[in-house]
Structures are given as structure tokens and as C-alpha cells.
């Protein structure tokens, strides 16, 4: 049975051009990029070309791009280094961030006790960040270094942060700003210099690149030390031999995503529009969570829905019919989403089944028709 795939927010399929590029690279004789012989120097030049390419697409300096094994590692590097190296004592975030933010901050709070304060900005009923509350918190606690950590695009409900406004607010109060941009990179143009942001991160498998490779952007001039030690790689910010083939694949994938961005955005938006229309027509009482049904304030690749019938096995039952969706973040697939818990009280949660449908450039309208047919079979 051929599967219909609607879990692109968890991971995206590798593009054929990326696969072919990586295969041709795997056939080459390469050395360790830290070695000083000819093969090592050749590999180092390939590595640095990839770094320059990614930096150019983001309008950043190549020295500001640090390669990691994942977006989660990049978030850990940034958050832990902010406390260890920048003397951050007060961090503002939200309760709907990715677990790589929330669990890392919780771990840091346990480690440092009352030496680090974690504060949560207010959210409205749709999960929108209250920027007035953010400014109040910054104004009230402006006596020591502060870090604001807010994601650009929510990985579960698709809400888009007003990132330029947050950058301006942070600049006004001289706070550091970190944004988890993992769901945004490859889907929106990110201009680092225009944003004047301190930290962002990316993960290749979210923009049709390979799994197991990501990067952190750390603004030049910030003295960040490694949390993984044992080598001087990545300008002594991240020890360990670089995943050269993963980096090459990531560089190729972000280049293609950047070239195709406008065309694919328009195409996927139409797929999402069609899905919303068909769901409204076919499933009585359906709700769209957060701002996910908006094509302006939500990313075009994510649609999060609540169906008025409780079924904890919904993704499993759809899988049996050949349709792949998720019930939340892939990092916590077997638990009730913490984001949904924020948006719904327990009484309401018990009346609904929740699905995240996430689209990619390979999806077609006929895939939506199959999804709708399967949902009707299960619920009607």
C-alpha cells in the first residue's frame, strides 16, 4: 500500500537532487577536515564552502554558523552557553515552545536552582504571544543580562511569531534574543542582519535535507564556549569530527529550498486551502487549533485540527488506511501535546481528537481527498 504522507513538520522527504548530490559526494575520497594533509585540506574547503553558502542564504557571516547534529543540539548549545558564558540569570520564554527549549530550561533551572529565573510570557486563547506582557517583563527585570527565547513558527499549531517586533523590543531593553527557527528555515526568507537577532537554529530534515545534521547561528562577538568538548572543531564551539556528507546535503537542500521558495509556497498554500475547505464541508463541528487555518498568521505547511469525537488511536487508525499524520511533535508522539493542553482545558480535551496535518511540495489534492475519505470512514 502506498502511503499518503502528511507529517512534513516531523520530517520531510529528501529531494532527489539532494540524494544524487550526496551519493556523488560519498563516492569521493575525502579526509578528516581537521587533518593538514591534502585530502584534509580538500575536505575542509568543501566544508567551508557549505558554511559560506548557508550563511549567504541567511545573510549572516560564515563565522556565525556552527554545525551541529540537530536542531535540538543547536538549541541546547545556545541555551546552556547563555547561562554558562553570558551570565544570563533571567530567561523569558513561552509554554508552547518545543521540548528542546522547555526541557533544557527546566534542566538548567534544576541545575542552577534559584540562580536562574525562567519566566513565561502570556498567551491568548489561540496561542499568540502577548507582546505587551513581554515588554512589561523586560522593563521590570532590566538590571541584569536577559535572554528571550521564542520560536518563529510553532511546530504543532503553525503560529507565526511577529519576530521583527520581538527583535525591536529586545533591542530596546538590551536583551539577547534566541528564536527556534527550525520550522521556518527553508519555508521563509530569514534575513539575519535585518533582524539583528542573536541566535537562531536550523535542521536539514525540515527542509528536505538529511536527518542528523543542523546548525546554530551565534552572532559574532558573543563569547560562546563548547558544551561538547574533546576537540577544536567549529571554532572551538562544538567538538567532534564534522558530518561532512550531512553538511553537504544540508547545504544543497537549503539552496534548492531557497530557489523554489516562492513557487512551492504558493503551491502548498493552495493544498492547505483545499484541505481546510474539504474538512469544513465533510467533518461537522471541526475546529482549527491556534491560528493554523490562517494563511497569513500561520505557516502554510501546518494545519492542526480538533475533531469532535475522542479517539486516542486516530493516527494509528489513519495509518492502517495508508494515511500518515501525527498527533503532535514527533519528539513526544505518545503523549498528549503540551501545546494542545495550553489551548484546551481537560474537559474540552476529552471531547476531541487532535491531528496535525503537515504538507509538503509532493502532496497533491487527491491526497487530501484520500485523507477526507478515511476520516469520514472513521468518524461518520
From TrEMBL:
Keywords, in A-Z order: Iron, Iron-sulfur, Metal-binding, Pyridoxal phosphate, Transferase
Family from the record: Belongs to the class-V pyridoxal-phosphate-dependent aminotransferase family. NifS/IscS subfamily.
Residue ranges of domain Aminotransferase class V in the record: 4-371
Organism ancestry: Bacteria, Pseudomonadati, Bacteroidota, Flavobacteriia, Flavobacteriales
Keyword check for Metal-binding: yes
Catalytically driven reaction(s): (sulfur carrier)-H + L-cysteine = (sulfur carrier)-SH + L-alanine
Molecular functions per Gene Ontology: cysteine desulfurase activity; iron-sulfur cluster binding; metal ion binding
Organism: Karelsulcia muelleri (strain DMIN) (Sulcia muelleri)
EC number, as in UniProt: 2.8.1.7
Record's protein name: cysteine desulfurase
Keyword Iron-sulfur belongs to the record: yes
Amino acid at each position: 500500500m502506498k502511503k499518503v504522507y502528511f507529517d512534513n513538520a516531523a520530517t520531510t522527504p529528501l529531494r532527489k537532487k539532494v540524494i544524487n548530490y550526496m551519493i556523488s559526494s560519498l563516492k569521493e575520497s575525502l579526509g578528516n577536515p581537521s587533518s593538514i594533509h591534502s585530502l584534509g585540506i580538500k575536505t575542509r574547503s568543501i566544508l567551508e564552502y557549505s558554511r559560506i553558502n548557508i550563511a549567504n542564504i541567511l545573510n549572516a557571516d560564515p563565522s556565525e554558523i556552527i554545525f551541529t547534529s540537530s536542531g535540538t543540539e543547536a538549541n541546547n548549545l545556545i541555551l546552556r552557553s547563555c547561562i554558562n558564558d553570558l551570565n544570563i540569570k533571567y530567561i523569558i520564554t513561552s509554554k508552547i515552545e518545543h521540548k528542546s527549549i522547555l526541557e533544557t530550561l527546566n534542566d538548567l533551572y534544576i541545575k542552577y536552582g534559584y540562580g536562574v529565573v525562567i519566566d513565561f510570557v502570556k498567551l491568548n486563547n489561540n496561542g499568540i504571544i502577548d507582546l505587551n506582557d513581554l515588554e512589561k517583563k523586560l522593563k521590570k527585570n532590566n538590571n541584569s543580562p536577559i535572554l528571550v527565547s521564542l520560536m518563529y513558527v510553532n511546530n504543532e499549531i503553525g503560529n507565526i511569531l511577529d519576530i521583527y517586533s520581538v527583535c525591536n523590543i529586545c533591542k530596546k531593553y538590551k536583551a539577547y534574543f534566541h528564536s527556534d527557527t527550525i520550522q521556518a528555515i527553508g519555508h521563509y526568507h530569514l534575513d539575519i542582519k535585518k533582524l539583528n537577532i542573536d541566535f537562531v537554529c536550523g535542521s536539514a530534515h525540515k527542509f528536505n535535507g538529511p536527518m542528523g545534521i543542523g546548525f546554530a547561528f551565534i552572532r559574532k562577538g558573543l563569547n560562546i564556549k563548547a558544551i561538547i568538548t574533546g576537540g577544536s572543531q567549529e571554532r572551538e564551539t562544538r567538538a567532534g569530527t564534522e558530518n561532512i556528507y550531512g553538511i553537504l546535503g544540508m547545504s544543497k537542500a537549503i539552496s534548492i529550498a531557497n530557489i523554489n521558495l516562492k513557487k512551492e509556497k504558493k503551491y502548498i498554500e493552495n493544498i492547505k486551502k483545499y484541505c481546510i475547505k474539504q474538512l469544513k464541508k465533510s467533518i461537522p463541528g471541526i475546529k482549527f487549533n491556534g491560528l493554523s487555518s490562517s494563511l497569513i498568521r500561520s505557516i502554510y505547511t501546518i494545519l492542526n485540527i480538533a475533531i469532535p469525537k475522542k479517539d486516542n488511536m486516530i493516527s494509528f487508525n489513519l495509518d492502517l488506511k495508508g494515511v500518515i499524520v501525527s498527533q503532535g511533535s514527533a519528539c513526544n508522539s505518545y503523549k498528549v501535546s503540551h501545546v494542545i493542553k495550553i489551548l484546551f482545558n481537560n474537559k474540552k480535551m476529552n471531547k476531541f481528537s487532535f491531528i496535525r496535518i503537515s504538507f509538503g511540495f509532493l502532496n497533491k489534492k487527491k491526497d487530501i481527498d484520500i485523507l477526507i475519505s478515511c476520516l469520514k470512514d472513521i468518524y461518520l
